[in-house]
């Protein structure tokens, strides 16, 4: 490079630095400016010999990231300094120790978190990818600013990706749509989320992106005129009320237009709400709510509102902190128009997320730190289970990131926000883990409801608990939030491990009776013989009686047949269970069951999506082919579920070797006081037994009864029958 070019570049760098200070959203003190200057000088020195693929000096990238952090996200000086230094440890001679010495613990910790994310192994394999995201999300434990600066870093990379290879562009864009856009959404950075989604689409589906972009540009003039016409009608009324306001038109993002086109199978021209109109008013905090509804009444005086499309996030803000009043009205020329009513403060919170909250909480010392702590607590729900599968984890996390919210009341009248689709179980776990784990039932608006009942905004929810209640496998069908599901899975795992411990002791006794040594070799042989994966699988199935005496005798005889064993060992190496010592009980999805009663029915797997065991599926009752099984994300699922809802049947894959069975027993005998109580006590004192149905009839001193039980196996059922026969007054017990 020539001296003149270097001179020009240096001037540009100095200009960018000044702009960084000028556009900072937070008010910077002298100490803040010193910290930022020091970080800037360090970054310039560290990256002095580096260039980006586009040819420009590398330092422009950290400055751009710091500018996004400072103005668009509105973070503090510590974050701006960390953003300037975010690539220093990874790419240059500076170490983490140097940064700790120069900038203190906090900045060094944030940079360390960012370095860890960058050095994650990049791979096309989805499970590795998910594992990397999971590790990234776990850095929330250290400092949530790590994630925010990472989002800013990703935004700038997306904005400057033109010089990259096409395959790299697609990979980075897909990754952005997969996790960074949902994260930005959850954090309340709606502007950044929209930009990330649009840029993601630009590189993953360029033709689609460019087509919609062209159409938006073509209709821009017409839209501007329409906004002008709409605004003119209400401006006089707003002026009469002496309001200080601004009306802005905002086109819908390219990504959301494309999503609508695909979901509703319509063309660009058929989308009626391609833009929203935003009325932003200036107000004292005490007048905000009053003025919002005043503007609402002015708008609805002129335009008829759609009553089903009113969203009041001023009385109940979203958990991201978003506040606004949304109404959809019939505008001029018979077009539906979404009108968003927000104060200046609400608008800044919508654009900057939590950072704007701090600015408005005047006189609160150390407010940023406290705000971040609250925020981390909210975002940590999905991170609480360290042993859940990485792909499930990321999917579950995304589910909670993007979910719409409902607002429900506790019996004391406190308001709780939950994701749409939540059930009483989700509510119970959101209050406290212990309440969730001991839930026995629930009342919604004073009526008893099943645990699978879907809650609606405005419901008052009361949880009935019992010391003896504990989660069962069906709870996973009723819970939708990441927190509840993680806690239920963890509890079920603990229970299974307890049963496995009992099973281990039983197995040791039974092998001794068969004169077989209880050691790793024999356990491995048993695991292979029963086609299992882990030793815990074996102990658990012995514990619940799925592997009984006869089966162990079969194993012993197959083992003692020395001639067969000799030839087998000559022909092939003895099999070794790959996951023998793994500390988990695995599932072998080998059976499909249908409906709430989990019946086994005839079915065919559909060719359009080819479901395999373990997939999330549903059954569709076809006219000629009986039940056809489809994956829940099958391309035809939406159409089938909307057009033929009455022919859809619940379906799920289960592990038949862990499955519970239903059995009906009939009882006859002489009626006496307390007999029913004795019967139920006897049944409930038996481990792993659940009563589904009870029916007793007494006539002239003789009684007959019918009980539906859920048992793990035949042995347990026979034990119960034998014990019931011993109860005084019972004459006959038989299985139906």
Automatic annotation (TrEMBL):
GO molecular function: GTP diphosphokinase activity
Pfam families in alphabetical order: ACT_4, HD_4, RelA_AH_RIS, RelA_SpoT, TGS
Keyword field: Transferase
Keyword Transferase annotated: yes
Enzyme Commission designation: 2.7.6.5
Biological or metabolic pathway of the protein: Purine metabolism
SMART domains attached to this UniProt entry: HDc, RelA_SpoT
Source organism, top-level taxon: Bacteria
Signal peptide start and end residues: none
Domain HD: 58-158
Domain TGS: 404-465
InterPro entries: ACT_dom (IPR002912), Beta-grasp_dom_sf (IPR012675), HD/PDEase_dom (IPR003607), HD_domain (IPR006674), NT_sf (IPR043519), RelA/Spo_fam (IPR004811), RelA/SpoT_AH_RIS (IPR045600), RelA_SpoT (IPR007685)
Function (record text): In eubacteria ppGpp (guanosine 3'-diphosphate 5'-diphosphate) is a mediator of the stringent response that coordinates a variety of cellular activities in response to changes in nutritional abundance.
NCBIfam families: spoT_relA
Family as reported in the entry's similarity comment: Belongs to the relA/spoT family.
Name recorded for this polypeptide: Bifunctional (P)ppGpp synthetase/guanosine-3',5'-bis(Diphosphate) 3'-pyrophosphohydrolase
């Amino acid at each position: 490079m020539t001296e003149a070019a270097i001179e020009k570049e240096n001037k540009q760098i100095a200009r960018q630095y000044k702009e960084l200070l000028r556009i900072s959203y937070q008010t910077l003190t002298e100490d803040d400016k010193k910290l930022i200057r020091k970080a800037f000088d360090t970054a310039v020195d560290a990256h002095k010999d580096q260039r980006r693929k586009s040819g420009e000096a590398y330092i422009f990238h950290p400055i751009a990231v710091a500018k996004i952090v400072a103005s668009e996200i509105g973070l503090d000086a510590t974050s701006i300094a960390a953003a300037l230094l975010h690539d220093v440890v990874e790419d240059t001679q500076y170490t983490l120790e140097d940064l700790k010495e120069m900038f203190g613990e906090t900045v060094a910790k944030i940079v360390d978190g960012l370095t860890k994310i960058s050095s994650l192994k990049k791979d096309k394999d989805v499970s590795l990818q998910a594992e990397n995201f999971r590790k990234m999300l776990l850095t929330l434990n250290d400092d949530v600013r790590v994630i925010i600066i990472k989002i800013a870093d990703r935004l700038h990379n997306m904005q400057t990706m033109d010089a990259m290879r096409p395959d790299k562009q697609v990979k980075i864009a897909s990754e952005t749509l997969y996790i960074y856009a949902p994260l930005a959404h959850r954090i309340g950075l709606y502007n950044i989320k929209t930009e990330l989604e649009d840029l993601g689409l630009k590189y993953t589906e360029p033709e689609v992106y460019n087509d919609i972009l062209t159409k938006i540009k073509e209709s821009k003039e017409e839209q501007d005129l329409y906004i002008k016409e709409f605004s003119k009608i209400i401006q006089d009324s707003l002026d009469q009320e002496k309001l200080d306001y601004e009306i802005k038109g905002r086109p819908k993002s390219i990504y959301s237009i494309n999503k609508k086109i695909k979901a509703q199978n319509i063309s660009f021209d058929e989308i009626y709400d391609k833009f929203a109109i935003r009325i932003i008013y200036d107000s004292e905090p005490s007048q905000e709510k009053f003025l919002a509804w005043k503007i609402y009444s002015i708008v609805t005086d002129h335009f008829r509102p759609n009553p089903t499309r009113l969203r009041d996030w001023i009385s109940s803000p979203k958990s991201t902190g978003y506040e606004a009043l949304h109404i959809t009205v019939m505008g001029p020329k018979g077009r539906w128009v979404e009108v968003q009513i927000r104060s200046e403060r609400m608008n800044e919170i919508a654009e900057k997320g939590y950072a704007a909250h701090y600015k408005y909480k005047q006189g609160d010392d150390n407010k940023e730190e406290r705000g971040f702590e609250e925020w981390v607590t909210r975002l940590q729900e999905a991170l609480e289970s360290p042993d859940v599968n990485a792909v499930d984890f990321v999917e579950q996390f995304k589910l909670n990131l993007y979910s719409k919210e409902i607002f429900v009341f506790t019996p004391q009248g406190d308001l709780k926000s939950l994701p749409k689709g939540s059930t009483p179980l989700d509510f119970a776990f959101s209050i406290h883990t212990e309440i969730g784990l001991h839930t026995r039932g629930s009342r919604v608006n004073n009526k008893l409801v099943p645990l699978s009942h879907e809650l609606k905004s405005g419901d008052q929810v009361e949880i009935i608990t019992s010391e003896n209640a504990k989660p069962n496998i069906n709870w996973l069908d009723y819970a939708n939030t990441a927190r509840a599901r993680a806690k239920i899975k963890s509890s079920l795992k603990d229970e299974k491990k307890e049963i496995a411990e009992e099973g281990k002791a039983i197995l040791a006794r039974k092998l001794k009776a068969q004169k077989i040594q209880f050691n790793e070799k024999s356990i491995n042989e048993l695991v292979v013989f029963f086609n299992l994966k882990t030793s815990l699988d074996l102990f658990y199935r012995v514990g619940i009686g799925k592997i009984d005496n006869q089966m162990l005798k079969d194993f012993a005889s197959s083992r003692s047949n020395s001639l067969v064993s000799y030839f087998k060992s000559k022909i092939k190496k003895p099999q070794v269970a790959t996951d023998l010592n793994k500390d988990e009980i695995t599932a072998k999805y080998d059976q499909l069951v249908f409906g709430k009663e989990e019946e086994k029915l005839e079915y065919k797997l559909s060719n359009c999506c080819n479901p395999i065991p373990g997939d999330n599926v549903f059954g569709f009752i076809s006219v000629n082919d009986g039940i056809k099984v489809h994956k829940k994300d099958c391309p035809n699922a939406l159409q089938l579920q909307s057009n033929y809802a009455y022919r859809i049947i619940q379906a799920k894959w289960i592990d038949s070797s862990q499955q519970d069975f239903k059995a009906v027993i009939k009882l006859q005998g002489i009626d006496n006081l307390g007999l029913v109580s004795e019967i139920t006590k006897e049944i409930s004192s038996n481990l792993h037994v659940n009563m589904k149905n009870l029916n007793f009839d007494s006539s002239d001193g003789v009684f007959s009864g019918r009980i539906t039980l859920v048992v793990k196996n035949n042995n347990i059922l026979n034990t119960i029958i034998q014990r019931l026969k011993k109860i005084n007054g019972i004459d006959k017990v038989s299985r139906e």
